[in-house]
Amino acid sequence: MTIRLRVIALLLLLAPTGALAETSYVRAGKLVDTVQGKVLNDQLIRIVDGRVTAVEPYKNAPADGMVTDWSRYTVLPGLMDMHTHLADFGQTNNFAEPLLHSVAETALLSSKNARDTLRAGFTTVRDVGVFRAFGDVALRDAIDKEIVEGPRMTVAGAYITVPGGGGEVTGFAPDVQVPEDMRRGVARNPDEVREKARYIFQHGADFLKLIATGAVLAQGTEPGALEMSEAEIRAAVEEAARNGGYATAHAHGAEGIKTAIRAGVRSIEHASLIDDEGIALAKQKGVWLVMDVYNGDYIEEMGTKEGWPADILRKNRETTDEQRVGFRKAVAAGAKIAFGTDSGVYPHGLNARQFAYMVANGMTPMQAIQSATIESARLIRKEKDVGAITPGRFADMIAVEGDPIANIRLLEKVQHVIKGGELVR
Q: What mean pLDDT is reported for the chain?
């Protein structure tokens, strides 16, 4: 190597890494500050290598990077949904629908689900279970490698459920053999729960999803019925902690909700029949409630139209109004509530329809937005990365026309999406 080449190589090695950093800007006409719960006017957001480095009042156009002009829009952090099912087929009038599709077909559909969700403004989701184990892990990893377009994901890997419980595929002839990859989390006692939980974490899950009670959408189970014991739930919680994760519990019934909270879960999914004691216990323990208060209307409308089984429609009617009563009480009590919709029961990409239901049932528009941003980020322990447009966090943001604080339904029509500093739409 010549002396000149050696000098050039040395200079490259000594050059500060910041010299290669990519800088860009977004000008926000209005900016929703989800940490402070207020709206700021005419802000300039500086982005370096996909993360926000500064937010300050706009003065002059910067010369060191491209400016995306969103001065006519209200800008919010990328939205977050804590109860999705991207890596699976949606609900139909056939209980055995999961058995009708190959692994490959499911994977291809999950890619579309991810894309639809991201383009609707949801840049981070928690996927809370798949019938074919670890399809969500593969989808998460494909998104992280930029093979597939989609939101940031944390995933459960598989349901932990009792045999024949709310996390099983049901509704077929008794001699039909369900594929083993649909039963990875089936457990009969605390020891089996620990074994299954360990296996799920070993195969890439971020947290555990426990089916603590029966389900609205599973034949042969009742939402109010407790299916996992406190000892079984606690075994999962302990194993999750050993693996650096946590457990969340699908729980409709009041006793199931309280049992799961006492056993140490981090959040309760659905909470349809929660009572006053359960709300107080959730608040005392700092447990998040993830209540899909939009979903019941979709099930009633489409289920009736498409001829979904009468058993599903009955259970949906018995839980929908009660869930909204519980939601209103939880909001009034100051319990932690994260945004979660059960997407996959309804078509992916319609997640924002739930905001209007949350506002109609006691939340202010700002509280509803915070539930889908900073509160959700806290639930999944990612508040340093997502949930707000502040220095250090990923540059995930959306633009909407008008004022969503005045009309929350504007979030159903997102005009633009940025994820990690890159324009998605």
A: 94
Query: Interhelix angle for 103-119 vs 135-144, to 10°?
Result: 50
User: Can you tell me the distance from the alpha carbon of 275 to that of 280, in angstroms, rounded to the nearest whole number?
Assistant: 9
**Is residue 40 within 8 Å of residue 31, measured between CB atoms?**
yes
Q: Which of 408, 407, 405 is nearest to 38 (CA)?
A: 405
Run of H or E including 257: helix 254-263
> Amino acid letter at 78?
G
Q: Which domains does the chain have, with CATH numbers?
A: 20-78+388-423 (2.30.40.10), 79-379 (3.20.20.140)
Taking residues 354-381, report their average pLDDT.
Answer: 98
Half-sphere exposure for 258 (CA within 13 Å, toward CB): 13
Helices (runs of H) and strands (runs of E) counted in the chain: 12, 15
Residue 120 in tokens: 């609707």
3 three-class SS: helix
pTM of this prediction exceeds 0.85: yes
Residues contacting residue 90 through CB under 8 Å, at least 6 positions apart:
344, 345, 346, 347, 348
Residue type, 251: A
Sorting pLDDT into bands at 50, 70 and 90, what band is 20? low
Distance (Å, rounded) from C-alpha 44 to C-alpha 42?
7
**Residues 245, 240: Cα–Cα separation, whole Å:** 5
Contact indicator for 152, 124 with CB cutoff of 8 Å: yes
Rounded-to-integer distance, Cα 126 and Cα 389, Å: 20
For 365, the token pair is 């528009």
DSSP state of 347: -
Q: Looking at residues 90-110, what average pLDDT do you find?
A: 83
| Cβ–Cβ under 8 Å, residues 292 and 312 | no
Closest CA relative to residue 43, chosen from 399, 368, 385, 364: 399
Alpha helices in 64-172 (DSSP H): 103-119, 135-144
**Six-digit token pair at 61?**
């156009």
Pairing relationship of beta strands 122-127 and 79-84 according to DSSP bridges: parallel
